[in-house]
Amino acid sequence: SFWISHCLSVYVQVVGIVIGAGVVIVLIALLIFFVLRRMQLRKREAQEAPKYRFRKRDKVLFYGRKIMRKVSQSTSSLVGSTSSSRPRLKKKQKMLNIAKKILRFKKEVPILQMKEPPPSVLEADLTEFDVANSHLPSEVLYMLKNVRVLGHFEKPLFLELCKHMVFLQFQQGEYVFRPGQPDSSIYVVQDGKLELCLTGQDGKDGVVKEVYPGDSVHSLLSILDVITGHQRPYKTVSARAAEVSTVLRLPVDAFLSIFEKYPESLVRVVQVWNFKIAQESPFDALSSYALFHHQDPALLNGRVTFHHAKAGSVLARQGDQDVSLHFVLSGCLHVYQKMIDKQEAVCLFVTQSGEMVGQLAVLTGEPLIFTIKAERDCTYLKISKSDFYEIMREQPSVVLSAAHTVAIRMSPFVRQMDFAIDWMAVEAGRALYRQDDQSDCTYIVLNGRLRSVIRKVNGKKELVGEYGRGDLIGVVEALTRQPRATTVHAVRDTELVKLPEGTLNNIKRRYPQVVTRLIHLLGQKILGNLQQPRSALGLPSMASSPDVTNPASNLSTVAVLPVWDEVPISAFNLELSHALSAIGPTLLLTSDIIRERLGASALDSIHEYRLSGWLAQQEDINRIVLYQTDSSMTPWTQRCIRQADCILIVGLGDQEPALGELEQMLENTAVRALKQLVLLHREDGPGPSRTVEWLNMRSWCSGHLHLKCPRRVFSRRSPSKLREVYEKVFEKTADRHSDFSRLARVLTGNSIALVLGGGGARGCSHVGVIKAMEEAGIPIDIVGGTSIGSFIGALYAEERSAVRVKQRAREWSKAMNSVFKTVLDLTYPITSMFSGSAFNTSISKVFEDKQIEDLWLPYFNVTTDITASSMRVHKDGCVWRYVRASASYTPYLPPLCDPKDGHLLVDGCYVNNVPADIARNMGTKTVIAIDVGSQDETDLCNYGDSLSGWWLLWKRINPWAEKVKVPDMAEIQSRLAYVSCVRQLELVKKSAYCEYIRPPIDRFKTMDFGKFDEIYDVGYQHGKLVFTEWARGDIIENMLKDHRSADYKDSKKTDSCTCPSADFTDLAEIVSRIEPVLSYLGADGQLLQKKKKTFYLYNLPYYLYLNLGQN
Predict the structure, then answer these.
(1) Which residues contact 691 (CB under 8 A, 6 or more apart)?
(2) Which residues of 523-557 are buried (b: 16+ CB within 10 A; e: fewer)?
(3) 3-class SS at 211?
(4) Could you confirm whether 787 is annotated as catalytic?
(5) Where on this chain is GXGXXG (motif) (predicted)?
(6) For residues 287-312, b (16+ Cβ closer than 10 Å) or e, as one string?
(7) What is the C-alpha separation between 725 and 712, in angstroms, rounded?
(8) Can you count the helices (H) and strands (E) in the chain?
(9) If we measure between CA atoms, which residue out of 835, 836, 853 comes closest to residue 844?
């Protein structure tokens, strides 16, 4: 009965008190005995003759100083002596070293120096587009700004264009152009303001864009129409002056006169403008070669093949890279596009007999954005991409006709959007907008990278997030019409599309279903702000709140920089490329590969724009591009750093910490990309050590990683032999459990974190679950925990083996089960019942002097800072100390004094017992959270408005009375302490990123460490059951699947990383390669830049679809 159990508990408490009192009495008696004995010995010594002696400590110090003094005198007298005295000098030096070892105190472990990010990371350049302080006229600057977006023009071409500029003055309300007038000019506002209007179905004009000084009104499609000889009038678009304005007008015909004068620029620009659309071209045009504007039938000889497709066959799939032109002879081809987050696809259009499909992907070099399927029997002609490029080489004007076939299929909506949107190019360091600016538009990133920084009330700046290709910027502020919450600046040269507020409203009116997606985006943002506290991103600080987002998410380019020449950087990059190729298409670029593919002088400064365009193309068609720097600060190394979203600094972990020469040069430049330190270790070598010294001698790094490398990485081979080795390696699938696969997941934002909750001895089940995870093939990239979870997590981060973790955890649990050590650790209970000395010893024996920075896996744990009343997240420092702090459960153990700032730290279970949200904010895609905490009773008695203690006592002592569940004072205080923790746990369990696991361990008590094996088996069996279900439900597969894999599905994987001479051909390479014989293709990147803009324009609805939903 309850009364008997209560009596037994009271009896146990009394017996414990008696035993404790007895132990105290015995200790006091022993103390008195030793004091009396010492007094007697002193009396005897006083009676004898006085003897003088040194204490041992004083003797050692005396002789030590004497030896050092002698040695110092000897070495000073030997200065300038002959070579015969060198052996003597060595002996003296050896004696000096021995003396130093004798007298040296224990060396203190270095502490990681907290460093703030440099200004280049958090601050945008103060110099903006300044017209007043420029030596050029404002009209030239404005025209340069707008024409540059169309593509790079050499100085003579641009000056020739400026000669055709016309100044126009407009009064308020006067129209610049109306529907029906020829659409054949580019308008740039010099001062004043214009309003771009669209005529709706009701005949009323709606403002979709306000044009301010320096901005322009033009359509890339209209320019293309004029260039190809198919000029059209304005239909639904008009522009009027909102105030007195001065406008610069540049006729598109000016381009034609320039191309006549500079024919080598014709193909570059016109080819660019032809990539705009989905096309239509009759069969007789192909048969008469009108499509190619060429009378020689030999142009197509051997390049056109005849095919027959049966009903239901798929000719090309969405995401294919190696595409072809398909010209329908009979039957029809259906074009489908997969809906976002759904398996079904929608039919975009049907290609009938005499029509062509696929030319947009061929011209742009981009992956196919739809699937081509024959719903019934069909015959068609096919021209491969490589054959089309050969035709283009022989007859450059083919791009004009191809452009027209694409443009005529462009919908009126896309043409209207072409007027309304703005193409923007933001240089590295320049601000896109600043905090508190007015929100009047949304931006879409085409390529490049931007960083969002918030300025706090105290003036401190903190990193909020980063944006990569396809991301929406500023959509929440634009929808809510609130001032900009942060400052966004370009990490590197970036291209964007600016979507004005009026244009976005027009889209919402025409396609109401977009509103649903916008509400969803806004709701996610608001919910995220409620659930996740904002704080610095990637900052290795001791802030109480965790990181907000992943600084390495959505990376496109990574530069790899070796610390020394001894670092096997080529093998490292090939190994990393192999791991990345399992996630998505990967390209490794070196200076040798660039020269081989683009020409010997490709890295010369005069070919800057050509190289930039080609590199941008590679970023578009690959999931990630690796840039291997040279061993010195060459132009290619500077290019790598300039192109990088993230820089990996690679060193050898078994060598002395040092700062390389290339790094020192890098420190003197304003590098905006985040830096990560990567230390390589041999398979049979010692574990990581002295990582703090590596980090302290460098400026701010966003993180560090330790990699255990296979032997082939350190083997010295010639480049040809190295390629042979890795050609065989690339034939096999990368091991998902290797450290290089872990690095690949970190770079692509696909990391998997394991978070272990607190719960005393019930946490022994963590080890069993980890064992089941290993058997299920689930990799672990980051480990974190609270209380016992911090202990098991630190063990796994150090060992990375469930077997070794089980052995060490069992030994520690056995030591924790010792009653004798527990009794000896009792103290007078003012702050705690135990002094904590025994607990400290048990944990320090397990981890010794290991530092968190020296663990194989990134690790963190959580404590409660009662000095500052906040949560603390520890990612650096002494392992055993912070594990002890995270497990300091009150009132049993005293708080631990943080050696960094003296704050008192206790168990983290009071603020966050299962810190899955912290792991998520460190950049992980999926968090596996294991909860072993006790569960409180929720079925409590409703006793009314008042409670009598006597009534409750009677209910408890009366064996025949009905039992009631009413918490006592201790339980109430405990529940109050866990209120915030319980709320946080409920949020985590409902989150989409977290996989929550709770083993059936409720029958075990907090101090049941003696039942380690039994608790371990419970966790192991439950883990096997859970992970088997995950495997059946494709949960594990989805964990390992890249979140951007759909963008590159079925795309061709380049093997250039192992074979630089591989047969890889694309339009960008043809245009970018230096061929003196083919001068019209020796462009400086203009063709490629324009081609990309056309592709993005054509796919603007697709980009909006990706972000806002299917229209």
Answers:
(1) 653, 679, 704, 706, 851, 853, 854
(2) eeeeeeeeebeebbbbbbbbbbbbbbbbbbbbbbb
(3) strand
(4) yes
(5) 758-763
(6) eebebbebeeeebbeeeeeeeebeee
(7) 8
(8) 41, 38
(9) 836
Place 711 in a pLDDT band, splitting at 50, 70 and 90: very high
**Is 313 a known active-site residue?**
no
Task: Tell me how far apart the alpha carbons of residues 430 and 425 are, in angstroms, rounded to a whole number.
Answer: 10
| One-letter identity of residue 1022 | H
Options 3.30.110.10, 3.60.60.20, 3.30.465.10, 2.60.120.10; CATH for 280-408 is: 2.60.120.10
8 A C-beta contact, residue 63 and residue 70:
no
Q: Which of 689, 702, 751, 787 is catalytic?
A: 787
9 membership: H or E segment, kind and range:
helix 2-47
**Of 121-135, 236-250, 371-385, 953-967, which gets the smallest average pLDDT?**
121-135
> In angstroms, rounded to a whole number, what is the distance separating the alpha carbons of residues 1066 and 226?
28
Per annotation, catalytic residue among 422, 781, 898, 907? 907
User: How many C-beta neighbours within 10 Å does residue 446 have?
Assistant: 21
What pairs with residue 166 in β-bridges?
Answer: 249
The C-alpha atoms of residue 385 and residue 395 are separated, in whole angstroms, by 15
pLDDT in tens, 92-121: 666 666 665 555 545 567 788 888 887 778
Q: Measured between alpha carbons, how far is residue 907 from residues 576, 754, 790, 865, 904 in Å? A: 39, 19, 10, 9, 10
Digit-coded pLDDT (tens) for 793-810: 999 999 999 999 999 999
Nearest alpha carbon to residue 651 among 706, 711, 715, 712: 706
What's the mean pLDDT in 15-30? 82
46-90 residue pLDDT tens: 555 445 455 666 666 677 777 766 666 655 554 444 444 555 556
Task: Report which secondary-structure segment, H or E, holds 595.
Answer: helix 591-598
Tokens coding 526: 């608001």
- Reported as a single tens digit per residue, the pLDDT across 140-166 is 666 666 655 455 555 566 677 777 888
| Secondary structure (3-state) at 558 | strand
Q: Does domain 557-746+1051-1074 have CATH number 3.40.50.300?
A: yes
Q: Which CATH number fits domain 751-935+968-1040: 3.40.630.10, 3.40.50.1370, 3.40.1090.10, 3.40.50.360?
A: 3.40.1090.10
Answer yes or no: are the C-beta atoms of 776 and 737 closer than 8 Å: no
Residue whose pair of structure tokens reads 């859970």 in the numeric block: 1026
Beta pairing, strands 305-309 & 314-316 = unpaired
